[in-house]
Design brief:
- There is one protein chain.
- The chain is mostly beta strands.
- The chain folds into two domains: 58 residues, no CATH class; 199 residues, Alpha-Beta Complex (Fumarylacetoacetate hydrolase, domain 2), CATH 3.90.850.
- Helix content is 14%, strand content 38%.
- The strands form three sheets. Strands 1, 2, 3, 4, 5, 6, 7, 8, 11, 12, 14 and 17 form a twelve-stranded mixed sheet that branches. The protein has a five-stranded mixed sheet with strand order 9-20-19-15-16, with no helix packed on it.
- The longest helix has 11 residues.
- The chain starts with a strand and ends with a strand.
């Protein structure tokens, strides 16, 4: 099931998106969104009689984390190597503020403080309930679903600051979308789900979740051993190799097979 957050020009709503995805993560022209009563993370799935054609609504970030976005660094060996860094012995965590979250087609703003802004296409996990110290074998019990993310990074600030807060924390540095897919089989991520990033239509990242160093159950267990996870919290699972710079005017599309595509353009503030 695809859960989206959207607006028709009024207050944001949640809904269930119908229709078939093509190989590029695009929905068929007859796709519709059926409205839900409230946020399904808190009130459950209460379907209303109202539906809209998908072209007639604006999709928003499918979740606004009440608490935090937890990033995982260097979770693909080839990405660690391209940065000239070692693979961490355990998941390397950092935080992005919830104010960094934007949705599909929202601009990503190029801050004046950086000269080296990078894309990082990723699979993201959305937590569905309050949890702490989750064993890996029970990780799927606390996952609401999965979405697509771009962990935008000011690479020069990351190198200069050493820690990641400023480099990854600017407003608009965490595009999420286009919706949350609740029905993906976690085994798919072990077998390998394709993660691609396109810069102005050209493939710049082409990886597979099979290449993750730490799988999703391990990440949920590790993060929840440190901090309580709340409904709507997001875990970014790391990016494949191929990260690189973006310029004002560039269009970035991140595609995760089985979920869809997330597109944003780089803009000046």
């Amino acid at each position: 099931m695809r859960i989206a957050r959207f607006t028709t020009g009024e207050e944001p709503q949640f809904g269930v998106v119908t229709g078939d995805l093509d190989e590029h993560g695009q929905l068929s022209e007859d796709a519709v969104i059926v409205a839900l009563a409230g946020d399904p993370l808190y009130v459950g799935m209460k379907v209303l009689d109202t539906e809209y054609r998908l072209p007639d609504v604006r999709l928003l970030a499918p979740v606004l984390p009440r608490s935090k976005v937890v990033g995982i660094g260097r979770n693909y060996a080839a990405h660690a190597a391209e940065l000239g860094q070692d693979v961490p012995p355990e998941p390397l965590m950092f935080l992005k503020p919830n104010t960094s979250v934007v949705g599909p087609n929202d601009p990503v703003f190029y801050p004046r403080q950086t000269q080296d802004l990078h894309y990082e296409g990723e699979l993201a996990v959305v937590i569905g309930r309050i949890c702490r110290d989750v064993p890996p074998e029970q990780a799927t019990d606390v996952i609401f679903g999965y979405t697509v993310a771009n962990d935008v990074t000011a690479r020069d600030l990351q190198r200069g600051d050493v820690q990641f807060t400023r480099a990854k924390g600017f407003d608009s540095f965490c595009p999420l979308g286009p919706w949350i897919e609740t029905d993906l089989d976690p085994q798919n991520f072990i077998d390998g789900v394709r993660v691609q990033t396109f810069l102005n239509g050209d493939v710049v990242q082409d990886g597979s979740t099979a290449d993750m160093i730490f799988d999703i159950p391990t990440l949920v267990a590790h993060v929840s051993s440190v901090m309580t996870l709340l409904p709507g919290d997001v875990i970014l699972t790391g990016t494949p190799e191929g990260v690189g710079p973006m310029q004002v005017g560039d269009e970035i599309e991140v595609f995760v097979a089985g979920i869809g595509s997330l597109t944003n353009r780089i803009a000046t503030r």
